[in-house]
User: Which sequence fits this backbone?
């Protein structure tokens, strides 16, 4: 059943067969639970029961069993999980499968040039052990930090697993960063070893990586060694004697390396996320909590089964990179990684990959879907999607038209969209649909299992259905960051000071009368026009109704009378460029006024060729605002192309302004 013929409130309704085979249904049957609502309620009311049940259901290995599930003796801010237990992500994700199913495929990789390689679990273990041996020889010991500046590849998986195996803390860094951004993370994490590639391919061009790592090491200081994978061996690569070593071949491993049995709270990696100030925040994640929570999400939310294949269009430097690698391999499934742009060499590349690699779960961002929608539509029918069961998304709120396009054109009306939301510091998801209940357009379903989330007003009181409020979480969860690296006060200030003992995430959310949840953008992006608050996603969704608009970003500008007035930067669809002018501005302002009311009519409309985005395709609205106001935008190292800000500044100088906000 696709579009429901039972209830037109829902865009997709599961068939009985979908419900029967779902991993989460197996968990419910084991414990005599009839509905997802009952399971969700019990998962937050009986925390220790739930997470212990997850460990048992998913066969997650603890070499030393834990004595207790959670310890709250230091308060919810500093909760610890699986107390007294010992485990290792590399043991769960690589070694155990190499013993049980050595020929099973662990990783499939596709280069942007079309090259394809696969690694079995046995091969991945040999690669991991070879690199772990090299790290030992370079003096890396448990607790040391190792920077990973790598494109998505089999070698990338081996690198993070090798670090995990010996207890080193890996520091994933976005592969498109320049030297300054890389250096700031190396210095903050105090990395003495960097693992990198000599170069990679993106949009048909060779992108040097070793020179970036070299310069970053020089700026940061303290780097003793670099391990270099020759992704493009034909490219000239300078190697510094005594510091740089070549990536080891598996045959160089003198013996198998056993995964160190680590305390559940042993740090696993430091995930950096850009802040509104110039200094990025390093979220600390640990072996036990990250392993259990991510395996749970990939099993129960996107319903990945052993032997199936998952691909998320992302980078290791964003949380969905570790999410897809750890989640897939922990379940004995296959992770599909691809180099370069998902829209190159053709805009239907993702659909080609689904057919070529028999992908079962495909993850995308709304921004990527909007880009595909403008260019790939005519080619979608050329590709076999029979393997595809689940579409998944994260990154930002959806506009309804793009959501419908993904559901009907890519999903053929027969596949659920698991639209989830969390964050680097969360290490997981607060909200997510599950594939055994109907979905609504642009909804995030409801609370993820084990996540005691709520929506509150400015005073911290729960809001009624239909009202927009602040998204919070009322109790800790296993994959929650153990703090900001080197700055515990910043951690407390960022997430725990607003409401005592409650995590404040920085998202606006609402839920409808049916209990379905929706996001409305970041609360720090919220516009306040004459006391009326509105999320930018609502403005952008209204603009998307105009046929000339491909995408947009709405921000608030200082206004002496109204407090803020609304400015919109608009990217037009291909072929609509000639329409940019006073008439189109009037039409766009009228469209917003018609759908949201005159108070929210944009004062300023700017046309641009592109919006500032991260590599994972999130629009950085504070950068848009800064380009229009001339203010400092804070850390912009995550932008894929900072030059788009210069173009927006130039366009703004000649932009058309309304005479008054409600004009």
Assistant:
């Amino acid at each position: 059943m696709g579009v429901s013929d039972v209830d037109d409130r829902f865009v997709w309704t599961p068939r009985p067969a979908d419900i029967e085979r779902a991993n989460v249904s197996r968990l419910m049957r084991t414990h005599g639970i009839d509905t997802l609502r009952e399971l969700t309620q019990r998962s937050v009311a009986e925390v220790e029961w739930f997470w212990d049940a997850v460990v048992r259901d998913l066969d997650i290995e603890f070499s030393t069993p834990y004595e207790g599930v959670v310890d709250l003796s230091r308060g919810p801010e500093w909760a610890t999980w699986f107390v007294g237990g010992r485990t290792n992500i590399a043991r769960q994700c690589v070694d155990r499968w190499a013993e049980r199913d050595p020929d099973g495929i662990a990783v499939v990789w596709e280069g942007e040039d079309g090259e394809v390689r696969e690694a079995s679990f046995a091969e991945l273990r040999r690669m991991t052990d070879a690199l772990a041996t090299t790290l030992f020889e370079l003096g890396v010991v448990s607790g040391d930090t190792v920077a990973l500046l790598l494109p998505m590849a089999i070698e990338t998986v081996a690198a993070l697993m090798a670090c995990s195996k010996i207890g080193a803390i890996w520091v994933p860094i976005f592969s498109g960063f320049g030297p300054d951004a890389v250096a700031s993370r190396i210095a903050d994490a105090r990395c003495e070893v960097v693992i990198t590639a000599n170069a990679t391919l993106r949009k048909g061009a060779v992108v040097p990586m070793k020179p970036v790592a070299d310069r970053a090491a020089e700026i940061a200081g303290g780097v003793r060694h670099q391990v270099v994978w020759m992704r493009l061996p034909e490219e000239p690569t300078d190697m510094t004697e005594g510091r740089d070593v070549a990536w080891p071949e598996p045959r160089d491993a003198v013996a198998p390396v056993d995964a160190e049995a680590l305390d559940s709270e042993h740090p696993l990696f430091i995930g950096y996320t850009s802040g509104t100030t110039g200094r990025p925040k390093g979220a600390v994640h640990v072996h036990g909590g990250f392993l259990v929570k991510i395996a749970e999400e990939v099993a129960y939310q996107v319903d990945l089964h052993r032997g199936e294949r998952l691909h998320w269009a992302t980078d290791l430097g964003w949380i969905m990179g570790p999410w897809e690698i750890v989640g897939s391999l922990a379940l004995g499934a296959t992770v599909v990684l691809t180099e370069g742009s998902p829209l190159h060499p053709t805009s239907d590349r993702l659909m080609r990959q689904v057919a070529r690699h028999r992908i079962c779960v495909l993850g995308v961002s709304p921004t990527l879907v909007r880009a595909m929608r403008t260019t790939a539509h005519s080619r979608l029918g050329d590709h076999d999607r029979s393997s595809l069961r689940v579409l998944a998304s994260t990154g930002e709120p959806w506009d309804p038209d793009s959501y419908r396009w993904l559901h009907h054109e890519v999903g053929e009306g027969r596949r659920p969209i698991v639209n989830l939301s969390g964050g680097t510091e969360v290490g997981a998801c607060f909200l997510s649909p599950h594939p055994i209940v109907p979905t609504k357009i642009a909804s995030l379903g409801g609370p993820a299992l084990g996540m005691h989330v709520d929506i509150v007003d400015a005073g911290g009181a729960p809001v009624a259905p239909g009202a927009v409020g602040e998204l919070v979480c009322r109790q800790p969860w296993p994959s929650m960051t153990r703090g900001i690296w080197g700055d515990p006060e910043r951690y407390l200030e960022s997430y725990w000071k607003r409401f005592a003992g409650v995590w404040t995430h920085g998202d606006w959310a609402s839920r409808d009368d049916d209990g379905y949840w929706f996001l409305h953008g970041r609360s720090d992006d919220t516009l306040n026009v004459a006391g009326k608050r509105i999320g930018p996603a609502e403005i952008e969704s209204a603009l998307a109704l105009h046929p000339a608009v491909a995408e947009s970003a709405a921000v608030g500008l200082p206004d002496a009378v109204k407090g803020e007035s609304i400015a919109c930067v608009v990217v037009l669809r291909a072929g609509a460029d000639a329409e940019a002018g006073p008439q189109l501005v009037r039409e766009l302002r009228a469209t917003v006024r018609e759908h949201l009311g005159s108070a929210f009519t944009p004062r300023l409309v700017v046309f641009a060729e592109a919006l500032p985005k991260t590599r994972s395709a999130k629009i950085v609205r504070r950068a848009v605002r800064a380009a229009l106001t001339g203010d400092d935008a804070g850390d912009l190292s995550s932008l894929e192309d900072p030059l788009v800000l210069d173009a927006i500044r130039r366009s703004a100088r000649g932009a058309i302004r309304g005479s008054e906000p409600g004009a």
In short: The CA atoms of residues 554 and 568 lie 4 Å apart.
